[in-house]
Design brief:
The chain has about 170 residues and is of the alpha+beta class. The protein is built from 8 helices and 4 strands. The structure holds zinc ion.
Length: about 170
């Protein structure tokens, strides 16, 4: 095989970075968070047995974990929009705080607080919002004439407060 071709095929076989995987699933709204989790090697599902004050968790799961060895569980009782945010938040922990996940289950309460620092939780919330509500896609909707938070929130399958925070509109 000519060297150039070989080089090209090697390049094509490079695994995607987390950022590339996220971008791949952000081409249309709503963003496919389960697709992102799956491609990152995470198995995500709903758990019936989580207490009401727990939104979800990410944990090393030798039995049911995806290729990465980790699973994301979300509270089955939460509403669908919250479940999407929780999956996105746990994906963010997987990307940003991977080494700390080796210390045991990372369990997020209803306010998305876990054993990590509040700065790390804020960081995870920011990335979760970036995953669910990419600005280029929001801009495309706005350019197409969508100009209210309720419609945008519905299109992106996020709560209205989440969309307001993303757009920098005060949440009352
Ligand atoms: Zn968290």
């Amino acid at each position: 095989m000519p060297a150039v071709l070989e080089k090209t095929s090697q390049k094509a076989n490079l695994p995607l970075t987390p950022g590339q995987i996220i971008a791949k699933h952000q081409k249309t709204a709503p963003v496919d968070v389960i697709g992102i989790a799956t491609e990152l090697g995470l198995n995500a599902w709903e758990m019936q047995s989580l207490p009401p004050n727990v939104s979800g968790k990410i944990f090393r799961d030798s039995l049911n974990g995806g290729p990465s060895g980790f699973s994301i569980a979300v509270n089955a009782s939460d509403n669908p929009l919250r479940k999407r945010f929780t999956v996105s938040h746990e994906i963010a922990h997987f990307i940003l705080h991977r080494s700390q996940l080796e210390n045991g289950d990372l369990v997020d309460d209803a306010m998305y607080r876990s054993g990590l620092s509040s700065a790390e939780e804020a960081q995870a919330n920011r990335l979760a919002a970036q995953i669910l509500m990419p600005f280029p896609l929001i801009q495309r909707m706005v350019d197409a004439g969508v100009n209210d938070v309720a419609t945008l929130a519905k299109m992106f399958q996020v709560s209205q407060p989440a969309m307001k925070i993303r757009l920098g509109i005060p949440v009352t």
